[in-house]
Amino acid sequence: MAARRQLLGGAPLPGPIDAVLDGWAGWDSNWYLRIAREGYFFHPGEQSSVAFFPLYPLTLRAVSALGLAPIVAGALISLASGVGAVLVFTRWAQTRTSPEAARDAGLFYAFYPFAFFLYGVVYGDALFLLLVVSAFLLLERGQLLLAVLVAALATAARPVAPALVLGLLARRLEWKRERGERWSLVDALPLFAATGFLLYVLYQARAFGEPFAFVETQGAPGWEQAPGWHTWLKVVWFQRMFPPHSAGIAVRQLAHAGVTLGALALVIPTVKRLGWGYGLYALAVVGLPALSSKDFMGMGRYLLAAFPLFLTLALLVRERPRLRVPLLAACAVLLVFLAGAFGADVYVS
To answer: For a Cys staple, 60 with which of 36, 93, 183, 291, CB 3.0–4.6 Å?
Structure first.
């Protein structure tokens, strides 16, 4: 571990801390740490760091400048952002339902089996989620300009700007209608939430001559997720499942396909309970990564962004209260299991 710690940009730490951080800095963490240390590169036809959006590695670099080892800085950013995201999510849920239902939604979000990515894993998801949920909370409070500014930061963290722009715009229009107010030009401000995304596109155009280098590199060997029918129709998924290459791969990919379908099944109940604005956002934020994935891998983690679905789930479970404790217990057990697997360097999501 000490050798790896030096590779990732920091001195070895005390044994238990070193072990935890080493487990929490696997897989894509190396890309974020490398970007923070060296900046971006793009080699056509090869896996390149431009695939990873800039807000998290920039934040990591800034916090590291305070004297922290990059891996420690990354873990602290993710932990603080993840805990903040759960708390802000619960506050947001309180704007849409009762305090009791909001509490249950917060528990389902916190114990979602893939929620370990919120608790210190050196990935950009926790920071992204904190910004997204904060943007919608600000929107519910009528603070449109602040909501758009926060959302613009979020679109510099993950390539799902269309979902966020669509969701904010739809919810803003719905919010005005609920209050009997007329729509105005100001209500189009959510379109500017795409600013973070557009700035990253402009950076790639200037630095590498390819504005959508982050899309092109997805087709590189090892990733092989170039846009096209082969990816959209999940040819790789079917090839690996029928017949299955191995039990482990089959279980992982079937589980990710299952949670994706489960999330999509919650979209209509979300429209009925939370409105069409949140329904459109959930559909887009689930549909975009699901479509662009060759085998659904990663969807367990990406579904954290579909936060309205967790409130919908809580509302549905409250209609069947006997399910609440067993379901939360099962989620907690799976959360611990998947966190342990990720820490042991198993590709979980």
So the answer is: 36
